[in-house]
Amino acid sequence: MNCQPIRWNTELIRRYDLAGPRYTSYPTAPQFRENFTSAELTAAIDRSNASQRPLSLYVHIPFCDTVCYYCACNKIVTANKNRARPYLDNLYEEMRMLAPLVDAQRQVNQLHLGGGTPTFISDGEMAELMANLRSLFALRDDDSGEYSIEVHPGRMNVSTVAHLRSLGFNRLSMGIQDFDADVQQAVNRFNSVDQVTALVEAARHEGFHSLSMDLIYGLPRQNLASFDKTLAQVIELAPDRLSLFNYAHMPHLFKTQRQIDAATLPAPALKLRMLEFAIDRLTRAGYRYIGMDHFAKPDDPLALAQARGELQRNFQGYATHGDCDLFAFGVSAISAIDNVFVQNHKQIDDYTRALNGKQLPLARGLALSADDRLRQAVIRELTCQFALDIRALEQRFAIRFDDYFAAELEALQPLAKDKLVTLTPEQIQVTAEGRLLIRRICMVFDAYLKVEAQQVKYSRII
């Protein structure tokens, strides 16, 4: 892995800053089909069992007690904590239906609770959830797995940190977004530096292996000075990983974003300047740019996996456990099992109705073709390693790269001329200028983009 720094080129960024997929999967979710059957899922689980790959589990807790105006996640906003009870009962029913299909000896190397706000549920309910998972799947009890949970630092008691650690969680992911009071007011999300500091200190005291924090640039009322202050405060807290996400204002798709005054959003030129400044600030502070919004300290497992050429990418983003099959539970959750993707119903009423009828809550899915898997491998290598070993790919998939991807190589020529990539018979190498535009480079290998161009609306790359 070439750990060269990013080289900022404003003219190229403006020219190539198109709308495109985030490539947490390939094919992307718009390709899933609604006639995917439980029989196809069962067959994929049988193949998965035969492989004896370890497991990754994802559990979606959709509830939030307040709404963050920028949010585009699948969520249910309610202050009524009692709404969690029937949902958890349905979640356990889904687990009990699926677990008997999975070889009980397969170890769970990775676990992630996401949302929504997973800590919306009480400490007692969290203990109950983990007990159910342990009774149904082979969770590790030696603290060697990567067991993580997302938390809202403004809505969480410090005492919960020790409770989560006692249940086996060893990684915390905190959604900070911005510390500036005006920005927080504009997006209705509040978490002070003092609150976050207390949680960070508690997590380190309890021996959490890793802390990650999310920031967003392009929020209403943000400016360079205010974001600089937030960055300085975050760097002082020294999380192991950082995500720096682009706010995509799409109120026609996400109703909560209609509560944001578009006139208060930073202008595109300022937004780019904020990103450039943030990348420079974080890299000077010692963070390594992993790719697509993510940074990590050089000794973090993400950075080490990338250096070894072992980094992977899945529906939760970059991962160090790419050898796992992902089983996901809860409303809207997406599984990746053997060669299929499967998504649950997005609406809680549909999810509940399926389980009440003793059916798995499958809404849609996709069985990957041979072409899908080949292109998936190309895109994963480019997004994770910023390079593609052509000869290794040819050997793995029994193809001649120049023949199979003749049109793609032609389409890469303008990008090579602009020094986003270098092309040789043995390798595609993403340059320092091209790393920020990796999504645009991957789009060359996406077979579905031309077909779906008029039907799917993506956010911009930068």
TrEMBL record:
Enzyme Commission code: 1.3.98.3
PROSITE patterns for this protein: RADICAL_SAM
GO CC annotations, alphabetized: cytoplasm
Keywords annotated in UniProt: 4Fe-4S, Cytoplasm, Iron, Iron-sulfur, Metal-binding, Oxidoreductase, Porphyrin biosynthesis, S-adenosyl-L-methionine
InterPro entries recorded: Coprogen_oxidase_HemN, Coproporphyrinogen-III_oxidase, Elp3/MiaA/NifB-like_rSAM, HemN_C, rSAM, rSAM_horseshoe, rSAM_sf
Location, primary (coarse class): cytoplasm
Chain residues that bind S-adenosyl-L-methionine 2: Y70, C71, A72, G116, T117, Q177, R189, D214, A248
Organism domain of life: Bacteria
Gene3D superfamilies: 1.10.10.920, tm_1862 like domain (3.80.30.20)
The protein's annotated pathway: Porphyrin-containing compound metabolism; protoporphyrin-IX biosynthesis; protoporphyrinogen-IX from coproporphyrinogen-III (AdoMet route): step 1/1
Function of the protein: Involved in the heme biosynthesis. Catalyzes the anaerobic oxidative decarboxylation of propionate groups of rings A and B of coproporphyrinogen III to yield the vinyl groups in protoporphyrinogen IX.
Protein name listed in UniProt: Coproporphyrinogen-III oxidase
Organism this protein belongs to: Exilibacterium tricleocarpae
